[in-house]
Specification:
Chain A is an all-alpha fold. Helices cover about 75% and strands about 0% of the residues of chain A. Chain A contains eight helices and no strands. With about 240 residues, chain C is α/β, with parallel strands linked by helices. The chains are: A mainly alpha (about 220), B mainly alpha (about 220), C alpha/beta (about 240).
Amino acid sequence: MAYHFDFLAAFDYTDVLVKGVLTTVELIAIGGVAGIAVGIFGAWARTQGPRWLKPIVSGYVELIRNTPFLVQLFFIFFGLPSLGVQISEMQAAILTMVINLGAYSTEIVRAGVNAISRGQMEAALSLSMSRVQAFRHIILRPALQKIWPALSSQIVIVMLGSAVCSQIAVEELSFAANFIQGRNFRAFEAYLLATAIYLAMAILLRQLLRLIGDKFIFARRAS
Amino acid sequence: MISFSLWDIVRNLLLAGRWTVLLSLATFVLGSVVGMIILFARISKRPALQRAAKLYIEVFQGTPLLMQLFLIFFGLALFGLEVPAWLAAGLALTLWSASFLAEIWRGCVDAIPRGQWEASSVLAMGHLQQMRHIILPQALRIAIPPTVGFGVQVIKGTAVTSIIGFVELSKAGTVITNATFMPFTVFAVVGLFYFALCWPLSKYSQFLERKFNAAHRH
Amino acid sequence: MPLIAIEDVKKRYGDNEVLKGIRLSVDAGEVIAIIGKSGSGKSTLLRCINGLETIDEGSISVAGAYLGTSELELKTLRLKVGMIFQQFNLFPHLSVGRNVMISPMIVKGTSEAEARELAKKNLERVGLGMKFDAFPDQLSGGQQQRVAIARALSMQPQALLCDEITSALDPELVNEVLAVVRSLADDGMTLLMVTHEMRFAREVCDRVVFMHQGKVHEIGPPEELFANPQTPELQQFLGMTH
C-alpha cells in the first residue's frame, strides 16, 4: 500500500471546519427547539385537540415517519419553488428538520401524555381549570419527565441526520469535509475528521440535553 | 423539450425501487447476523469484549450514516480496491444496522426478569446454557415488534446511499427530476413509494406490539 | 458430619452488615425453619448457601462441596442443593413437563426419555402428573409452586432451600404446597425453610432458627422455642404473629 495518510492537511482549512460546525449547531439549535414545540402541539392535538385536527396530525406524523429525511429535504428544497415559493437552502434545511423532528416528537410526547393517569386531568378539571390550562400546568411537565431521554435521543438522531443537508449546499460539517477533500484530495482523512467531530458533538449534545433536563424538566419548584 | 407523462416517471421509479427493496433485505439479514455477534459480546462476562461492543455501538450510533458510508467508500478505495457503490452501501448499512439491532436485543435481554436467571442458575445451568435455553428464547420473542419496526429505519436508511451513486429510489428521483424538471411531482411520487414500503411495516410492528402485550396479560 | 455446615458467615452490603457471623449445622434429614422479621437476614442467608449471594467471611459447605466463586464450584454446589423461590420463577416459554426436564437434560446429560420418566414421576409426586403438557400461565399459583418443587427434585439434590415459598400464594392455595413439603420431609429430605407459617414450623420442623439483625438469636426444637422464648426479641416477634 503506497498511500500515506496525511491527517494534518485538513487543518489548513480550519476556518471551513469551524464554519461547518457552527452551521450544524445553528441547524440543530433552531430545529431542535422548534421541533419540540411542534411535538408538544402535536401531542396536545392528538390527545386533547378538536376532532377535525386529529386525523390531520396523524396523517402528518405517519407521512413523515415513513419517508426518508433526504426525500423530505429534496421535496421541500426542489419541490416548493416550482409552486412559486422562494426558499433558501438554509431555510429549507431548518424547515425540513423542524417538520421531521416535529413528527417524531409528537409521538414521543404523546406517549408521555398517555402515561399520565386520568386522575390527574380529573383533579385539575375539578379545580375548575380548563383543559388547556390543565394540559399546560399539570400534564405537560410530568409527561416530558417521562420521555425526556427518548426525546433527547431523537434530537441527537436529527442532528446526525443533518449531515445530508450538505446535499443542498448547506455549509454544515459534511459540506466542509466535502470541500476540503475536493481541495486536497484526501477524502478518507477529511471524512474521518468530520466523523470524529460529529461523535464529539453527539456526546456533548447528549450532555447538554441532560443538563437542560435536570434544570428545567426535572427540577422541583419549591414555590 | 420532451414532455414526460406521470406513467413514465412512475415506471422508472418502480424499476429503481427494486434496488431499494433488495438492499433493505440484504442489510436486514446481514445486519442481524453481525448484530447477534455484537449482542453476545455486549452481554459477555469478559470486560474486553463488552467494552469493544460498547465502543462499536457508541461509534455507529453516534455518527451520521452518511459519514460512515463515505468512510467505507473512500476507505476501501485507498486499498486499491474498485469498490462499486452497492458494495460500499451494503457494507455500511450492515455495520450501521447491526449496532441498532444489538442495542434493541440487549434491551430485550435486560427485560427478562432476574428470577429467570436465578432459577436457571440454581438448576446448575452454566451461562451459555442459560442464554440458549432460557433467556434468548424469551428475549427474542419480545424483540420481534421492535426488530420489525427497525426494518422501517433500514428502508429509509437506503436513501442515503444515493449520495455515493447507488441507483436506488432516491437517486432515480434525482436523475428523473433533472431530466423532467418536475421536482414536485417526482419527489412526491418518490415519497409515496417509500411510504408504501414503510407504512405497512410500521403498522405490522404496532400490531405485533399490541398482540404481544395482550398475550402477556394473564 | 453435618450435611450443611455454615461457619462464621459474614456479609456486608456497602456499610450495612446483614450477616454478622452465622454458625449453623444441618444434619441429613433435618427440617429447619428460619424465622424472623424482615431485614433480619434470613433470606440473604439462604441465598448465600447456594451461591446466589457471595459471602465476605466464613465458609459454607453442602455435602462436602464448599461455596466458592468459580463457575465449577458453584455448579458442584448447586447440584447438591436446590432452591424454591417465592415467585416460583417457572420458565414461561416451556411446558410444565419441559420445565422439569430441561435441567437434567442439559446439565447432567440425561437422555430425553429418561428425563421425561423422571419428570412424570416427580410431577405425580406433587400431584400434577396430568398437567405435564400444560403451560405455566394456565396453572394456579399453588400449582406453579408445586411444579417448581418437582423441577428442583428432578436434579436429585441432597437438600432443598425454600425461600418463603407460600408468601406469594392466596391463602387457600398455601395448604396444597405445604402438604407436598410435609411429604418431602416425611421421605427424609433435608429442608431449610424461610417461612412465616408458624403452625407448619411447629408441626413439621425438627429445629427452628430465630434470626435477628443478622445473627442467630435463638435456636431449638419448636416445642421449646415457641413455648418458652428466652429473649425479649423472640417474645416480641411471637407476640406479633399470634
